[in-house]
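User: Fold this, then the next.

Assistant: Folding the first:
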Amino acid sequence: MRRVTMYSDIQSNEVVLNLTPDPKVLIALTHTHIQPLDALCELIDNAIDSFTSAKLQGISISNPVVRIDLPKISEIDSDKGVVRISDNGPGMSASAAEKALRAGFSGNNPYDTLGLFGMGFNISTGKIGSVTHFFSARQEEDKAVDVVIDLNKINETKDYKVVAYKVDKGATSHGTIIEVSNWWPNGNDNRGFVKTLVSYGAKKIRDELGRRYATILRKNEIKIIVNEVSCEAFEHCVWADSRYVEKQKHGKIPAVYRFNEVIHTQKKCLHCTATLEAFQTSCPACGSQEIRTIEERISGWVGIQRFDDLSEFGIDLIRNGRAIRISEKSAFFEFVDEFQKTIKDYPIDSNFGRIVGEVHLDHIPVDFMKQDFQRSSPEWHRAIVYLRGESSLQPTQPGADKNTSPIFKLFQGYRKVKTAGKTDMYMGTWDPVKEEPRRISRDVEKEFYQKFKNKEVGYYTDDEWWKKVEEADKKPVKQMPLCPVCGCQNLEEAEVCIACQTVLKGKKCIACSETIPVSAKVCPSCGASQQAEIVKPWTCKVCGTKNNAALTVCSNCGAVQGEENHLSKEYLLADSDKDDALSISDCTVALSNGQNCSPLSIQVYITKHPIRPNFEEKTIPVYTVKATLNELLIFVDKTHRMFKNCKMRLEQIVASEAAEHIFMLNKAVSSSNGRHTIPYISWQIVEKYWADKLEDNSDDLMTDINSIVGIIRERLVLSSSDSLSECFDMLTNDETTKMVNEMLNAGIDITKIETYKANRHFIKYVPVSYIVRLFEEKPEFFFDGHVWNEPYASLDAKDQIIRFTQERTKALYQSCLQDLLYYVTYKNQADYVLQKTRIALQLLRQKVME
């Protein structure tokens, strides 16, 4: 955000910092998209890097700590308070501080540290507030560096020089303190940024930092403290390394694979990161002789979590101690074949997964805000091949027979939980009715996991968990009771001793009181029948009517005595299995009055047989039982023709049933705005819980749009005249923001933006909206072979027919470009919009290729 030049032409205790940037770049950087927690992490990274720097320089730091102090919500609402990040690191000299405040500068080498101090510092502080106070002291220096940067003042006065004071260190012998204040006002895009951060709550922030910096915190070398409470390192709940499953084709497959291997080496320039050939001793790009051989080392582990989950699985990807990607799934559990077709590999047998891991990829470059690794880099490709192979994880897919990667092996052993126990390594119990293992309930899993997080003995390790795995495989041994008279062993169900005929399980004869076998229908001594006839009224199970004992058919509904009520909760529960993927424990939606409805428990069950109401031939697809005011039991027959033939989605039906219940519970809510209706409430439920699952994937269309726009940009740069540079000022603020973000993501030094303006290369990074507007105002840049081969400016415009031809040509291409812009802007998935966009793409691609 700030380009810094230091002058020493004033008092010895002061230096002037010239922060003059290009005005458009200044505005753009303060609006760079970044999440509040990521902004905080950028500043933490810089503090951690100071300790790394001290260690490399041989400087001893006692009890390294990073402190984060956050204001209260009430202070933010009153435009008071500060966000403070402080450390007791080695501190910065005046020259180091100068570089730290310069946008685009990073004093850190790109391989051993976390931060990109200049860029990350400027963007993060500028997002939080308009005033940044920077204070840094070094042990060996008498004075500290003290700088206050007021963005509003700089922007208003256009005076980009600020004074850095050399002041007394006070109580800070060494370290750096960054304080950000003066929250952005209403109307500014960054309004509410700091409030969003603080509203997470200190505990949530500590938990998130504990996950992101887990590998650093586990070493106990550096502490991170938020509002006076230390962050605890996150730990994965995985099975011990000694656990394994056995599969027929693969043998023993351990629950954890650990690795620490160098898969490649390359020579890199430490100045500009260019790659060198083995024989080169200086950088061909910048001439630097600071060359280093970089090992592409992959270390860490992948393994099996002790429970499966809808979202809590995937691989944490770590760079120099900070998790860049948490629970990464697509890179490992999806495979893109040579025809760009994406194959989902895991999970495919259910919606739940349990493959997790922590992988250190210190050598792979990341984007400028450390949101992700650079996935187009060769380093990323080599790492993914090592970890998951060059084929689909599914064993029947091409190339899978040659895949020996650790994730491929884990998939073969643990892809699904079909059988609890040691077979699939999952906790369970023995089901005496079905005579087979049954997985344990999710409530028990949650209880065990909480004990793991509490580090309780036996639960932190997997001892108690493993007992439940073994319990699932233990078929109870039937007891062999002993005869009290002769001592002979008998079967458990035996009523009479097989040796001496002593009654083991008996009852008294109703006539002579002799002890006889419990199942005897006739007394062997007196011959009296043991079946007493008891005549009493009976209650109909269908309608609940109490009937006279003499009746065999209900006097109210005509049901035969003993006939089950096929729509009773008990009957349906006994004839169905719960579907966890469709069930929602606490379903809430916003009502039309702005308040949320009371949490509703929605438990969905899939019936084993068709749902058939009493006395009717036709079956129904769904039946809902209101267990309590805030609990619904929804029973669904997946085999019903409504689902099989009419293609109705289960999610839609469940949402509709729940919406009707919510509507009836809140009938008093006004519907004047048209939102308190069953269809609208149903849509809210679908959008909140299943939208991603039900929506069509439009990635291919966006890829095609990006491709044709990229070709247009390239041809404009190569073919247009120098007057295209003059069109730089046509960029709006929003378009400038998007352009700068694209340049930063591409690793462009934005301090050289004037060069890109002069050589027209800024066009490569402008958004679609600018391309459309440029075409509307300067169509001559696009025709006559510049982008398309259509004649335009080369025609004699004096002729009326020629002018009409020009206008028609321009209108056709303008319409196509506007269709692309409409889709990019609004992502409208309506069929006619998709079709229209495809036609526009086809015409533009055809003409540009001619």
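Now the next one, as you asked:
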Amino acid sequence: MDALYEVAVDAPLTTTLTYRQPVGRTEIKKIPAGCCVRVPLGGRLAIGYVLGPAEPLTEGEQSFVVKPIVEVLAETPFFPPNLIAFYRWIANYYLHPIGEVLRTALPLAPTSRSNRQLKAKTRLILLPGPLLRPVIEARPEIDGDEMVDGVEASMQGSLKKSERKALALFCGDLVRGNYQPVLRALLLERYPGAGSKLKHLVELGILEQSSQQIFRDPFEGLAEAHAAPDHLTAEQQQVLDILLPAVDARSFSPHLLFGVTGCGKTEVYLRAAQHALAANKTALVLVPEIALASQLEAHFHARFGSRLALLHSGLGDGERFDQWQKVLSGEARVVLGARSAVFAPLEHLGIVIVDEEHEPAYKQEDGLRYNGRDLAVLRAQMAGCPVVLGSATPSVVSYHHCMQGKYRLLTMDKRVAEQPLPSVEIVDLATARRSRPELAFSDQLISAVAETLEQGRQSLLFVNRRGFSSYMACRDCGAILQCRHCLVSMTLHRGQHTLLCHYCGFRQHPAALCPACGSARVSGGGIGSERIEEEVRQLFPEARVARLDSDTTGNRKHYQATLRAMRSGQVDILVGTQMIAKGLHFPRITLVGVVWADTGLGMPDYKAAERTFALLSQVTGRAGRGSDPGRVIIQTYQPHHYSIALARQHDYRGFYQQEIAVRQPLSYPPFSRLVIIRFSGRKEERVEQTAVRVGQFLCGHSLMKKSDILGPTPAPLGKLKDTIRWQLMVKSRSPAALHALCEAVLAERKKLCPHDVAVGFDIDPENMM
């Protein structure tokens, strides 16, 4: 009987399917787990991933027709078998089809929407063949010409003059290259007519020709790495004295590394990864954003060289494919990347590191809504190794885990070289002196930038919005120009001469008429990084100004070039969004200006204060990292808000205590777990009716005694991409009850949800919008 395989099909199916051996394939050559296959599904063909042998059919199933796999798309597995349990857990916890989980984890595998397959890039190499090898082995010190003579002697004949020339060139390159394979292309450059001669030498058995995979290099243009310090600080050594034995113990242990900005956490990560490699283990290092990965690349590449692989969407498809193959083959033993790198096919994990663990960017906001930080903890648990969550502003939930004894708290309270934390000044925009009221700058911030320029130092100006104007308003009727596909305001991007929706990408000419009254008197309001850059150039025309946001950094090479210019002193003032708030280490930056600190405080999200505190603390940490003291000026309309006041004092523990006191009475995390159930469709009435029906179903469920339900209500972003959105939130202190309620909705989905209304589950949401 043909072998049976368990296949996770790339389709919205809650279970895996069983298929039999492809027609014509022998029993001996079974398909290994991890291979990508094409299988029949209904009346079409779909992509699937082999998880291993299927269970034998029961008596009741013997009459079923088990369809064969149509095609094996790649004989080489895309993932090792040890990750299958990881994928199953993800599918179960996030209530997501396992085939779609694998599609997310393996973005470069073939999909049902495309037959395109990436392949390894190879080159032809030449090696000594069976007639040449004995000549070399008999006399290891032989030179190239003597090799040719030895081959002819062993052949008892002579080569043609052209063949002798080609062989002599090969032998010379072989000796000079310390007997490493010779590149065929390089030899042909020196002797263009050698192609047919080399082919004949291979046929004679003098040479052997083979293909060798070459990896596209994603490390071109890296910034200069800091040299490894001769001595660690006392706090770095204390932390490593705990982490390194944890690596040796080869058992799961979670640690929260709470270290102020500039304390040297990166060096701790590097040494912990080095220790794992010395123990014949591997290391996984996650960062929340591609920008932050780009900043760490140089340091990790300087220590690990070819043993390092990068995995993030900022690489080209070919580069990502090569990096994945390096990990699969075992050549790369350290992986650095953004949240998707948590799926890296590493085996024998020795340590998992999550930098800036508090960042909401670890949460995927569409499709499989996983949290990369949480899955990193799970991978460490499954691998039996320590995990380190590092941050200067830990998430409230992670810090609470430390207080409850779930995580071990490691602290680093001092900067390297005893550099002081920068002084922080708060400017109340409601009362501050502003000689240029049309600009976003107080006199205090303008004077500080001017003073920094005179000193030959660098300034960093942060605003958490891109574009020129964050909204466009009619001066006659007050209407706000909104995207025709989303209920959100359009943002003016003056450099691109367009109005842009940041949610769906819809563009409109900036000279638009008011849709409410038809007036042409429409003007911009609010601020963005593009406007701040223009105002800086007005105020300081002699300054060299650069801007970093997602509009200016179309690719990582441009981003790296800007960082190099900043590092070499070619930039006086750097303006940017969140991507400049974290990880940057420029000793010449002595001034940080936060143009408007209130951006996120008005969001309808229980984490608004936490995010504001973290962002202000992180951007504050960019100042004073060299020999000169740092200065920070924060402009705000809410100077007494605890997130701003405590960020000024660098007081995370004080913030934690105040935030916990706010959340506990409301039973928000860490005192409960959350699920947001979202409903979306084209017809508002149908979406609302479905949300109400599901809400009534949950209210009548017996497990609601352990849970609370909020809603249903229209989502804060009630329309996106022409789709109406409603949602309800379920809170519970019991994760099991919460999960059971979601499964109950799924079980009754056909009754509760019409075909034209989609329902999705956001487990442990980071974003309430």
